[in-house]
Amino acid sequence: MYNYKKSTPLGYSDAVAKVREELKKEGFGVLTEIDVKQTLKTKLNVDFEDYIILGACNPPLAYQALTAERDIGVLLPCNVIVYVQGGKTYVGAVLPTVQLGKVGNPELIPIAEQVESKLKKVVDSTARK
Prior knowledge:
Elements: E1 3-8, H1 12-25, E2 29-35, H2 36-44, E3 51-57, H3 59-68, E4 78-85, E5 88-94, H4 96-101, H5 108-127
Antiparallel strand pairs: 1-5, 2-3, 3-4, 4-5
């Protein structure tokens, strides 16, 4: 398992807005945004359901991770997704304990646990209406 995902009763646009709001509450900013639906249409001329990837960063925790492991930037920012499949809206986030656990640096584990706890709160809050 590499992500934490739940369905939400919210529609796609409302779920994206709620995720942004919840990320902010947890100290994250959105650094990157990929509209997968639009990108696939533009690049491949294929139709795809609504899907967005938000690259979220919590600056104090990112700084701690970078201080502990300089190359950790290849695993940043933390991706949070919102998408529609079969008429249902889903929200999910990467599990930092899985990602950073692969690095083998024990200093990263408590940082990853903090980030993961915050991302799970974002998903859980968005899954509730």
